[in-house]
Design a protein that fits this description.
EC 2.4.1.-; 6-stranded mixed beta sheet; alpha/beta; single chain; 8 strands
Length: 550
Amino acid sequence: MGISRLHLEFSFDPNDFSTTINKEVIDVIKANTDDLGPLSLDSFRKNNLSVSWKVPGLENPIDDDSTSAEKKRITIAKQEKILDAGHSQSVDTPAKLARRQLRDKRRETRAADLVKKDDDVIIKLENAAIERSKSVDSAVLGKYSIWRKENDNENTDTTVRLVRDQMIMARVYKSIATMKNNTQLARELQNQLKESQRALGDATADADLNRRWVVGGWFFVDCLYFQLFYVNIYSVPEKIKAMGKLLSKAKDQLYDCKMVTGKLRAMLQSADEQVRSLKKQSTFLSQLAAKTIPNGIHCLSMRLTIDYYLLPPEKRKFPRSENLENPSLYHYALFSDNVLAASVVVNSTVMNAKEPEKHVFHLVSDKLNFGAMNMWFLLNPPGKATIHVENVDEFKWLNSSYCPVLRQLESAAMKEYYFKSDHQTTLSAGSSNLKYRNPKYLSMLNHLRFYLPQVYPKLNKILFLDDDIVVQKDLTGLWRVDLGGKVNGAVETCGESFHRFDKYLNFSNPHIARNFDPNACGWAYGMNVFDLEEWTKKDITGIYHKWQIW
């Protein structure tokens, strides 16, 4: 369209070419035709060019023929020079150079704006980061600091795990090689297993592997001194490479997906059985260690009991007995047959108390340890605190006609459950949890906590302590805790599954399933605050009896 109309203009008045179209317009047309293709001449006559096409100083056409001729000669000379130099690109005209300068200027302006915006954004982000950093507690030190060296590498046992994985696969292939009578490969795997085990040792992290060095130094042989350098005889990387090559060889000769899977499953089941067995042994031995009395105090209870009953009756009484029923003081209940354990609880509480003279300890023991418990605290009184020891067998109201659990504890089936333990002969045998088969649960001391209002009818609040705790701070603040009408205040010990009801109750029984939530959280009896008035109002002991009878 542009070319045809241009020809019409030329053919209309060929003799007046210079007056119809000047040289600058021709240059603009040529430049834009080269860049963008043919253009219409009408757009130039209507002065409808964009800003980038307008050249300052060229708005008014110049009709000077001499100037045009001079520019034409310069242009022709430039073209000839470029052609002589072997270049084929077109000559930059003033209009084209002007447009290019305008484009470059616009790009620079746009780039400057973007850089300025980026700087503003960076400044805003930095200010926000500074504000956030003010809320960070920089006083956290020690192993919790993320800047410590031991936290530089998260995977500190990568090499150790690789060696162990190789050893597992070596055992699998060794077993398969033995089954297929490939004794040579089985022997190689066995030897390499020993080397890997020797290199690994008891290391649990990669850092432990670098400490296994031979001690070096100078030694004297035949009048000559020799130096023994530090040499790592258990080069783990070399063992890994050697084991990798051997496993690759074993895979080529023996690999059978079904057989390897079966071997790994068998190894997993065997490991699970070993873990369960070790857990049972650990539970039994920990209970044995907790109950074992050192040789030096084997006869402690007996000697204390003899000394107590040799005392005249007037010397068997504790001082400050008037505090025993004073509700304005801090009262503790402790039921135990362990003299030393009870002493630790009482003394640690008194040592950390701000006002020890306001603390009253109510101890209850059985008839076997009653004399020893009294004699110990007569010889070792707890400072200004008040203490009183009672015998659970002297509570005449606590009998089998009133207490259903007492009838159960006296039954032959219950005694057989706790003492015979299914007649197992090994530590790890038996499916029952040894923790709950402890004969101490046959003692009424373990169930007396459900009768606190009956034992202490004139008190309105009491703090129950178990005999396996050590008090480390003043406990008087617990008496100021508002229980909100609840009977018991305790420390919640629930984890993912620990101490939840489904671990204690048989929810296959529909009656239990209807009345209890399996995900409800239990609590620890180590330290409990009891509101005895609310206990009596809600008849907690009666509810306990109901479930014992059921």
